[in-house]
Write a structure and sequence with these properties.
The two termini are about 30 Å apart. The chain has one domain: Lipocalin, CATH 2.40.128. It has a 10-stranded antiparallel barrel. The protein is mainly β and about 160 residues long. It is built from 1 helix and 10 strands.
């Protein structure tokens, strides 16, 4: 067995840990492979295609993903349940663009909302909306300097593969 195979065997988990109540399982429904249609807004909207892969890791105490869009993004998110705050601690890393974010995620009504702040102090909000068994809409927003207006930076339409 190679070192990579050892890592995958040690990292992966068959499902959610019994330490996480079903009612707190905000992200388990994402486990699997998703096709992505992305609109990235920096000036004119840029349309991109990609994939996201989600799985339980760390003995079922976390959900990790890998998002890929050739030539644009290759990153991973680790979502770890924190019972002390009743929410998920989220860490996003995209080494292609040196983009790193820390957020807190919760279910808010029919959506999953993640909020955080970039290293430069800009508040961010990422939302899973229109959630269905085989699709979701994801919105990435940043708060404008006026402190009131959320600017859409990117959105993904995802479909289960």
């Amino acid at each position: 067995m190679t070192a990579t195979m050892d890592l995958h065997a040690a990292l992966g988990a068959a499902g959610r840990s019994p330490e996480i109540a079903e009612s707190d399982d905000v992200y388990g429904w994402l486990v699997g492979r998703w096709g992505l249609d992305c609109l990235h807004y920096k000036g004119a909207a840029v349309s991109l295609k990609g994939q996201a892969h989600f799985g339980w890791v760390l003995e079922g105490r976390a959900v990790q993903d890998v998002w890929t869009m050739a030539g644009h993004m290759y990153g991973t998110t680790l979502r770890v349940w924190d019972a002390s705050i009743g929410a998920w601690r989220i860490s996003w890393k995209n080494p292609v663009h040196n983009h790193f974010e820390e957020q807190i995620g919760r279910r808010v009504g029919e959506e999953i909302v993640q909020v955080g702040m970039r290293a430069n102090g800009t508040p961010t909000r990422w939302r899973f909306t229109e959630i269905a068994p085989a699709s979701f809409h994801w919105l990435g927003e940043a708060l404008e300097p006026d402190g009131k207006t959320w600017r859409l930076e990117g959105e993904f339409r995802a479909r289960r593969m």
